[in-house]
Specification:
The protein is α/β, with parallel strands linked by helices. It has 20 helices and 25 strands. Helix 4 crosses helix 6 (about 105-120). The radius of gyration is 25 Å and the shape is globular.
Length: about 625
């Protein structure tokens, strides 16, 4: 839509009502107009929902700032124009569209299909429920021009999303998002609401069965010994967390020859209200309680789960003392990496030709594995749009795509799906568990073997709730400059710096009005490395510098993309610590990811150091009490 910043709010409401044909959302705006609720109208209408590298994700309500039939149609109109312009033979190659079980997901998917049909595209459609990895799999398998999945993953029930994959089967990354957003802006008047003829359109191809069969066949490359799997008496409990995963999990488990799961009966059917969990994310505290209770009832010691759109995977195991160990994303990632390496060796692929990546906020244990085993490793920015594209680049250089993961329980095994995939992860994990079970071992025993081989890594990944973006900016500015005001162009300490008592190392750039002043220590441990993707600074051995250092214009520029619009700083300390702090792009959170490594497996020392650094983050860096966090 045109710039609305100066348009009177009731004119915006009138414009909305002239475009919207959904009685439910029309009634919402009409009621607000009648009530003269200008504040709510402003919130819903003034600032359009922004299209980014995650596509669209927002609450389902009326208005340009929310997800609804108007914003879905206009997003699809703009995307179809952009894809036709940027991808060769886009209309004949077609687009893949799928949807999950959330409220409105089906109609949002149908409106997306119709918008592409109106542009002359062939559409490969999953008319029934699909799990998110099916869309990137089909894009790659069918050589389609792009893909759209209607899902909000594990967000609350009132949210939905519009996730876009590019022609190579990966999530879009900059600058594609900017170009798509511009096209959406240029085609912001919804044109076609008629979805009644989709099933009869010759340009629509139902790929539900064919692509599931192809996906299962592609996933079977990870089967190590199907006869051993068939002989397993492994018992485990499975929950799809009220999502779509159950039938797909059943198919892949059968394809691997593994025993069937014991279901969490109250969570097996798709439920858009997620009625038994406060937040449908297996990572959240209490989310696996029903699964654990089911396991306890049956005397079973292993629980596995997918999130609602089945692109993430979680697991927990009962220990000898009767407690449950919920594996972290990093612990699972470590075990998957070791398991994948076993598979690639079984396939005769040299270790030096295997490529693995993880996000920069994930554990450095994967890097330690690579150093010892000799496979090719890289870290990437947070998000599979970065990791998958990094792996694709490695594949083009002659490497075999082995594995990629992020600490938020997202795992990409091999190259059939160039995104996180909870279903293939489920099968590979259960195969590992079955193999260990046959030897009288637990999964946690396998994890201990990795610690013994590569060193002990302990982490704390937490967040502070900070609904005020300005406050988050002030916190990061103070960490970066020693003051909450970054318009400081002299080398003298400011009031804030004097009060917090933090020793700082100074770095000055010529022709700049600021002097970077990062903390010298965190928790008493010297800072040895800094990477600031907001200010555009990266340096190793910073603790070996004496006195203020003047930087050249091109010196110490990070290899990762720099963005002044988001906050992200990484520190490494001489005790084997690594801390990354960032703001969330989708939630009012200031997140941190902290890890301490003990190369000699001194767990007590690592745990002690971790706690000292956790305290320093809260007290010194974030000043949680002072900032009311």
């Amino acid at each position: 839509m045109p710039d609305s910043s100066q348009v009177p709010i009731y004119s915006l409401a009138k414009q909305w009502l002239s475009q919207d044909r959904d009685p439910k959302t029309r009634a919402q705006i009409e009621a607000l107009v009648d009530a003269k609720d200008e504040a709510k109208l402003e919130a819903l209408l003034r600032h359009p929902v922004e299209f980014g590298t995650a596509g669209l994700r927002a609450r389902m309500e009326a208005g340009y700032a929310r997800l609804n039939q108007v914003t879905i149609i206009t997003a699809s109109q703009g995307l179809s124009v952009f894809v036709e312009r940027e991808v060769k033979d886009a209309r004949s190659r077609g687009v893949v569209v799928g949807h999950d079980h959330r409220h409105n997901s089906e109609v949002f998917a149908q409106l997306t299909v119709q918008a592409f049909l109106d542009r002359g595209f062939k559409v490969y459609f999953y008319p029934g429920l699909s799990f998110t990895p099916q869309v990137p799999f089909a894009v790659k398998h069918l050589h389609a021009a792009c893909g759209v999945m209607i899902t909000a993953s594990h967000n609350p029930k009132d949210d939905n999303g519009y996730k876009v994959y590019w022609e190579n089967g990966t999530q879009i990354k900059p600058p594609l998002d900017v170009g798509i957003a511009r096209c959406i802006q240029e085609h912001s008047v919804p044109r076609n609401w008629d979805i009644t003829r989709i099933a009869e359109d010759s340009n629509v191809v139902d790929i539900s069965d064919s692509m599931l069969d192809a996906y299962i066949e592609a996933t079977k490359v990870h089967v190590l010994d199907i006869e051993q799997n068939r002989c397993s008496n492994l018992q485990y409990v499975y929950t799809p967390m009220h999502g779509v995963g159950a039938p797909f999990a059943k198919r892949v488990i059968e394809a691997f020859g593994l025993p069937a799961y014991v279901p969490v009966t109250g969570q097996m059917r798709p439920d858009p209200d997620f009625s038994t969990v406060a937040f449908p994310n297996p990572e959240e505290k209490g989310a696996l309680d029903m699964a654990k209770a089911t396991a306890d009832h049956h005397g079973i010691g292993l629980v596995v789960a997918n999130d609602p759109d089945a692109d993430r995977f979680a697991a927990a195991e009962k220990q000898s003392d009767g407690s449950w160990l919920a594996f972290t994303g990093d612990q699972l990632g470590t075990m998957f990496a070791a398991s994948v390496l076993e598979t690639t060796r079984h396939q005769g692929i040299p270790d030096a030709k295997v490529a693995m990546v993880n996000s920069t906020v994930s554990s450095r244990m994967l890097e330690a594995m690579a150093i010892r085993e000799g496979f090719h490793y890289a870290d990437a920015l947070t998000g599979f749009k970065w990791m998958a594209n990094e792996l694709v680049s490695m594949e083009q250089q002659g490497f075999h795509i082995g594995f990629g993961y992020e600490e938020a329980i997202g795992f990409m095994i091999g190259n059939p799906v160039l995104d996180k995939d909870g279903i293939s992860a489920l099968a590979v994990f259960l195969q590992l568990a079955a193999s260990l079970h046959a030897k009288g071992k637990r999964v946690s025993d396998y994890l201990e073997e990795q610690y013994s081989r590569y060193g002990f890594f302990v982490s704390s990944n937490l967040y502070f709730i900070c609904p005020d973006p300005a406050k988050s900016t002030r916190i990061f500015t103070r960490i970066r400059f020693g003051t909450s005001n970054n318009n400081n162009n002299n080398n003298s300490a400011t009031g804030d710096e004097e009060q917090d008592g933090i020793e700082r190392t100074e770095f000055a750039r010529p022709h700049c009005n600021d002097v970077l002043r990062y903390p010298r220590t965190i928790g008493g441990f010297p800072v040895s490395y800094i990477r600031d993707l907001t200010a555009g600074f990266e340096m190793r051995d910073v603790d070996k510098q004496s006195g203020p250092l003047t930087l050249s214009e091109t010196q110490f520029v990070p290899s990762f993309p720099v963005s002044a619009s988001s906050q992200m700083i990484t520190f490494e300390t001489r005790n084997g610590g690594r801390l990354t702090m960032r703001t969330s792009g989708t939630e009012p959170k200031l997140k941190y990811y902290l890890e301490v490594r003990s190369a000699n497996n001194d767990r007590k020392a690592a745990a002690r150091d971790l706690q000292l650094m956790v305290q320093a983050i809260a007290d010194e860096l974030v000043q949680a009490k002072k900032n009311g966090l």
